Amino acid sequence: xxxxxxxTRAVAYGSGAAVLGGGVLYYTYRPRNIPGLEPAAVPPPxxxxxxxxxxxxxxxxxxxxxxxxxxxxxxxxxxKNVLLNPTEGDEVATTTPxxxxxxxxxxIGGGATGAGVALxxxxxxxxxxxxxxxxxxxxxxxKSTKLVHGGVRYLEKAFWEMDYNQYKLVKEALRERxxxxxxxxxxxxxxxxxxxxxKWWKAPYYWAGTKAYDLLAGSEGIExxxxxxxxxxxxxxxxxxxxxxxxxxxxxxxxxxxxxMNVSLAMTAALYGxxxxxxLEVTGLNKDANGQxxxxxxxxxxxxxxxxxxxxxxxxxxxxxxxxxxxCDSIRKMDEPSIKEIVAPSSGVHIVLPGYYSPSNMGLxxxxxxxxxxxxxxxxxxxxxxxxxxAPTTIQQNPIAGEDEIDWILSxxxxxxxxxxxxxxxxxxxxxxxxxxxVKDPKAKNTESLVRNHLIDISQSGLxxxxxxxxxxxxxMAEECVDEAITTYKLKPTRVLNAPCVSGxxxxxxxxTLDGSCQTHQVRLIGAHGFSKTLFxxxxxxxxxxxxxxxxxxxxxxxxAWTVAGLSEPTEKRFPVRGKRLSPLYPFIDGEIRxxxxxxxxxTAVDVIARRTRLAxxxxxxxxxxxxxxxxxxxxxLNWDKKRQELEWTDSLKFLESMGLPKSxxxxxxxxxxxxxxxxxxxxxxxxxxxxxxxxxxxxxxxGESKSE
Length: 709
Fold this sequence. Notes:
By secondary structure, this protein is of the alpha+beta class. It folds into 3 domains: 58-75 and 95-142 and 260-342 and 441-489, FAD/NAD(P)-binding domain (3-Layer(bba) Sandwich); 182-255 and 344-438, D-Amino Acid Oxidase, subunit A, domain 2 (D-Amino Acid Oxidase, Chain A, domain 2, 2-Layer Sandwich); 534-689, Orthogonal Bundle (Helicase, Ruva Protein, domain 3), CATH 1.10.8. Helix content is 37%, strand content 17%. The protein is built from 23 helices and 22 strands. Strands 5, 6, 7, 8, 13, 14, 15, 16, 17 and 18 form a 10-stranded mixed sheet that branches. Strands 3, 4, 9, 10, 11, 12, 19 and 20 form an 8-stranded mixed sheet that branches. It has a two-stranded antiparallel sheet with strand order 1-2. β19 and β20 (463-468) form a beta hairpin. The chain is globular and about 95 Å long. It starts with a helix and ends with a strand. One of its GO terms (cellular component) is mitochondrion. Its cofactor is FAD.
């Protein structure tokens, strides 16, 4: 009897272990829908490239804004029928705005939050306008770490502090990560991130942490984390320092192209009917007789750049959303001058290094730097991005990364890279500082404590401020903001009728699910419908462009790469047939400039080199060298005179200073750049910025000696 009992227990334990082990194996290796690997929702076209709907022109968008304030311009059909040759931009008639002309929401700020709110509101059938003083993603939204993540380090904090709210934030971010990757597969992708281990006891600790991260993601997970032995870790990441390395853990998160994502959000909102205008500055807020906000005064900064008078005009709206990130206090003070500031600005510096500093498909995280912070080391757009720092700062439009912060990042990199890799200041191709808008809740008992995630606040006069948060959760922030706006301003969402054919194909009804509720978790962004991992092959075969250019275009524009390639000039070579490169070092081509102007509201050279392409963020000196071509193409597209072209040159150099351009090149003339004879100021500057050791070596002979040419 006892023997039978022992046998029964052994079988039971063995069966239980087998079931548990099988469950773990199934969970680890179960079939998954990896974002970006699905076939395109719209198959590739036949012989002719696809045709896509276009957004309204910037002039048409501004005319719509003016109409809300009772001003009719020559772009109005009614005025065109009366006047034959009106002067462009002149006001023709003023009248009382009709209810249909007044916006439900006016959103101030064209970053990730503002563009996300615009798309959410537009897809709920609301009449929406969004205005931006500079350009979409011109501030914090373009200067992120480029990750789409739940925050593995926040999960560790939640565990040790037994903080359920922190746990919920990670859980929500992991869900939003999945939505992000699904709605913009061309602009985002999953990325394995390595966590090197230098002590054996760390292996089970971090293994448990990464597995908890996997489990928390649940069905929204990407791939399961795994352990690498020392040899496998070095094979995957050859640049790692071998000393003390005992192995590594690899977990998965997402990566994205932040500025391209931001522009795509704004353009998708425009296709769904939102009025979207950049380079339009809010100069004041209007209130009605009851002291409630009813609109804003704005002026067109592009007209000022063109040497014309930029007169103020009024935009009327039932509700105003302040989504200006670190600048939100300036808008709040327009509403109430004596109000207490809520932004606690923090500077985050990133540097960009050549691609040979990291594998092309593996990132790295150092969870414990010398001062206890976390640093990421990630492949991005063919280069390597490293950061970030975290220090209090002042609010400014284009902050400059300090040398002490750059040196700190380089010092941390040296700690985990092999000693034979000379980590040099000259390898820093670009460096920038982004201002993270940490916020304090003005209604909290302790008004100095920072909110954990994001803040939605409504002033007595009805200004709705949405601030804080991070890129990964932009969609959730927007949803909560629009929900609050609907309640506060008594708005009436409706089913979207006559939804645009964003995909360019009648095979997909983009308005099928738009019933007035929030549907942005499944609204594909512009470019997503026809994207697949093999789309670049179709592009090569049709237009005859280089492989790296085709991959870049499909990864930056999705199915709109067809349009970009079609706007590129013939090369008059056997191959590539199309696509004049802006820089020999990168796959950006001339067609992107034309596309940016015609389809994405690019109005300045900086709009193109920094946010439509990412050249300035990848290599400040390469961006300077590409500037003559960018200015020439934009001048042709936008009819710039010589004075405007000179202004663009000057403004671009000022911006490139914030990207780490050497000081000696900040006064570079176009002639000097085109000649290719830009020299460093002195030997110290050469030592700091040069990417090689000797300025010019004579031709070497086989015996090791050199000879003059």
